[in-house]
Each structure stands twice: as structure tokens, then as C-alpha cells.
């Protein structure tokens, strides 16, 4: 893997996906161990930027009453529904509502090197797990064009959650032909339903996604 000039893509490292930290309460959709990945992400961020790479961060950014909220359908989190646009949309607790604390990035995430913040899931009627395509699997977020115009060929992914937004982003990234590497200690999964993290990892591997620890990646960036 050639990581000089790579993109570090930090997925949804936001308060609502993190358990309580420094006096704050649990996020609405807290992922177990979510806060533990801030340190490896910060180390990768500095190293990637120092080697001429770029750092981008996605931000789940939902309007109130978003289609992915169980509360919008008198349903409960974990239920799966068909919406007019998307079949099998999983429902979640209200989370990452635009402009709220839960939508803010984790306070300890180093944003200095981040040159692009990509907001997704901002349409009320359509969710977006992937950083590349919304959940209709057609509507582009514009990230592919940004990468191509900068000549970036390799993408290192970290963030939350392994089995949803990291998974869909990595799968699209690999399918678009970018060398795609998941930083194994810089991701955590929601594990809904049970087994989803293991399935996601197996599917990513089958699709040619590579896996490396942040220390291996940092070694390569030295
Ligand atoms: C995510 C569920 C709902 C994620 C976002 O970041 O993985 N999961 N919205
Ligand atoms: Zn969401």
C-alpha cells in the first residue's frame, strides 16, 4: 500500500455516536468504545497531512423528523421499513440533528488538518450512510469528483460505525477503484443486528478492501 498523498476519511466522529466523555452524557446512538478511536484518528490525521495527503471528515446531518428516525414513523429503533425512495431503511433513535450538540464533532477530534467537511443525510426523505452515494445508491455526494480532481488514489478510512457508514463508504470507495484501507483500531461498530460487524468486515474483505492497524499505517507514513 502506498499511503503518501492519501486521503484520511474520518466517518461521523460525532457526539451522538460516542458514549459519555468529559462531563457530557451518552450520545443518542452511542457506539461502544466510540471515544477510544479519537487518539488513533488524530495520530493518522497528523501523519497523513505531513506526507502531502488530505484529511476529510463526514458529518451525519439530519433535519428534525428525518426519514431514518423511528420517531418519524411511530416505530422503534431497529425496525426496518420501506420508504418511498429506499427499501429496507433501518430506523434509529433521533440523532445528529442539524445544529445540535449531538451533531458536533467529538471535542477531542483534531480538526486542524481537515480540509473538507462533507455533510450527508441532510435531505428529510433520504438517508445517506456512504460518503459517496446517498441511500438511493444513485445520488452522488460529490466526494468522488473531489478525490479525482485532486488526483487522490488511496483512501484510509476510520470512524463510526464499522457496520454502517464506514462499511458503505468503504464498499463504494473500493467499487469506484480507489485503493481502500480501513484502519482497524480506528473504527467501532454498532452491532445492530447481532453479527453485523463480522458480516461487514467479511464483505469488505471480499470486495478488496484492505485492513491495517494505525501503527502499521503510521509506520508506512514515516
Ligand atoms: C450511522 C446509523 C445512522 C453511522 C449514521 O454513522 O454509521 N449509523 N446514521
Ligand atoms: Zn444517521
Brief overview:
The protein has helices at 38-50, 143-149, 165-175, 196-206, 214-221; strands at 7-11, 54-60, 80-81, 89-90, 114-120, 154-160, 179-188, 210-212. The protein contains five helices and eight strands, in the order E-H-E-E-E-E-H-E-H-E-H-E-H. Strand 3 (80-81) and strand 4 form a beta hairpin.
Describe the structure.
This protein has 222 residues and is of the alpha/beta class. It has a single domain (7-221), classed as Rossmann fold, CATH 3.40.50. Helix content is 23%, strand content 19%. The chain contains 5 helices and 8 strands. A hairpin with a 7-residue loop joins β3 and β4. α1 runs parallel beside α5 (214-221). The chain is globular and about 50 Å long. The protein starts with 6 loop residues before the first strand and ends with a helix. The mean pLDDT is 97. Pyrazine-2-carboxylic acid binds next to loops.
Q: Cα distance, first to last residue?
A: 14 Å
As laid out across the biggest beta sheet, the strand order is 5-2-1-6-7-8
How helical, in percent, are the residues?
10-25%
- What class would the helix/strand composition place it in? alpha/beta
* Mean pLDDT figure: 97
The CATH topology comes to Rossmann fold
Anisotropy-based shape: globular
**Which CATH class applies here?**
Alpha Beta
Count of domains: 1
Q: Which molecules are bound in this entry?
A: pyrazine-2-carboxylic acid, zinc ion
Amino acid at each position: 500500500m502506498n499511503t503518501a498523498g492519501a486521503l484520511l476519511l474520518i466517518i461521523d466522529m460525532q457526539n451522538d455516536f460516542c458514549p459519555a466523555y468529559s462531563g457530557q452524557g451518552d450520545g443518542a446512538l452511542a457506539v461502544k468504545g466510540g471515544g477510544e478511536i479519537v487518539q488513533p484518528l488524530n495520530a493518522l490525521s497528523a501523519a497523513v497531512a505531513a506526507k502531502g495527503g488530505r484529511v476529510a471528515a463526514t458529518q451525519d446531518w439530519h433535519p428534525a423528523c428525518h426519514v431514518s428516525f423511528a420517531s418519524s414513523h411511530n416505530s422503534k429503533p431497529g425496525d426496518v421499513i420501506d420508504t418511498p425512495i429506499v427499501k429496507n431503511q433501518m430506523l434509529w433513535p433521533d440523532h445528529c440533528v442539524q445544529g445540535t450538540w449531538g451533531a458536533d464533532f467529538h471535542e477531542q477530534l483534531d480538526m486542524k488538518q481537515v480540509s473538507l467537511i462533507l455533510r450527508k443525510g441532510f435531505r428529510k426523505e433520504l438517508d445517506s450512510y456512504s460518503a459517496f452515494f446517498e441511500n438511493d445508491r444513485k445520488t452522488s455526494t460529490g466526494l468522488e469528483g473531489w478525490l479525482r480532481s485532486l488526483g487522490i488514489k488511496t483512501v484510509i478510512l476510520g470512524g463510526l460505525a464499522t457496520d454502517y457508514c464506514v462499511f458503505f463508504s468503504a464498499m463504494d470507495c473500493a467499487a469506484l477503484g480507489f485503493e481502500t484501507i480501513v484502519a482497524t483500531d480506528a473504527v467501532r461498530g454498532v452491532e445492530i443486528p447481532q453479527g453485523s460487524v463480522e458480516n461487514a468486515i467479511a464483505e469488505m474483505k471480499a470486495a478488496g478492501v484492505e485492513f491495517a492497524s494505525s501503527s502499521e499505517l503510521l509506520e508506512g507514513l514515516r
